[in-house]
Amino acid sequence: MECRPCRGDEMGLLRELFVAAVMELTGGEYSLEQRRAWVSSAADKVEFCARMEARQPFVAILQERIAGYADLQPDGLIDHFYVAPWAKGQRVASGMLQHIEELAQSKEMTTIHSFVSLTAEPFFLQKKFVVVEQRIATRAGVTLPHALLQKVLTLKSTRESLPR
Ligand SMILES: CC(C)(COP(=O)(O)OP(=O)(O)OC[C@H]1O[C@@H](n2cnc3c(N)ncnc32)[C@H](O)[C@@H]1OP(=O)(O)O)[C@@H](O)C(=O)NCCC(=O)NCCS
């Protein structure tokens, strides 16, 4: 699996992946009504593509296909983090998070955080995030429980590798 910046002409594919991931992977934790409300944020394709392009996401490529996408904002927020249903359980999310942590460290960020679904929370906890706060979002008049999770990054010291 490799991660690379998402091209402008691929934003529509991210929208399809987002809808598929929410509708097909989160049914254990969210009702159909909740999942429909969640994906309603992508109802307007032009608006979704413009919003995502502004976030400068990257894509994870597996078997020459987009298997997932995510982003890292300047304040350390991971806004979107989604894996395609066909790629679930193949460590795509693990690879994307590793990529995010490397990006964050290259920008000398000390923490990263995300508003995480109940579905993804066990994954993030396994990756050493901690719950900061339980929250309830409202989308299209429907409530969606989720949580703010944060991870403190250990900055790699470059001092040891400097010439004496
Ligand atoms: C949750 C999600 C990101 C995980 O992606 P994935 O590529 O399947 O995860 P990985 O294969 O990298 O899994 C890594 C580890 O986390 C565990 N894990 C992944 N999803 C899990 C879940 N829902 N519950 C418990 N453990 C989970 C895996 O079992 C694996 O454990 P292991 O290292 O002991 O084998 C993905 O299923 C998804 O997109 N879900 C729906 C959308 C969503 O909620 N996105 C997050 C929005 S904040």
Q: What's the end-to-end separation, in Å? A: 37 Å
In total, how many domains does the architecture comprise?
Answer: 1
Chemical compounds bound to the protein: coenzyme A
CATH architecture: 3-Layer(aba) Sandwich
Structural class: alpha+beta
Number of strands: 8
Number of helical regions:
5
What is the average per-residue confidence, as pLDDT, rounded to a whole number? 94
What labels would you give this structure?
164 residues; 4-stranded antiparallel beta sheet; alpha+beta; binds coenzyme A; 29% strand; 4-stranded mixed beta sheet; 8 strands
Structural write-up:
Helix 1 (11-25) runs antiparallel to helix 2 (32-39) and helix 1 crosses helix 3. The radius of gyration is 16 Å and the shape is globular. It has a single domain, classed as Aminopeptidase (3-Layer(aba) Sandwich), CATH 3.40.630.30. Strands 1-2-3-5 form a 4-stranded antiparallel sheet, sandwiched between helices. The chain has 5 helices and 8 strands. Helix content is 34%, strand content 29%. It has 164 residues and is an alpha+beta fold. Residues 21-22, 25-26, 81-83, 88-94, 114, 116-117, 119-120, 122-123, 126 line the site of coenzyme A (COA). InterPro entries: Acyl_CoA_acyltransferase (IPR016181), GNAT_dom (IPR000182), N-acetyltrans/Recomb-assoc (IPR052564). GO terms for molecular function: acyltransferase activity, transferring groups other than amino-acyl groups. Residues 1-164 form the N-acetyltransferase domain.
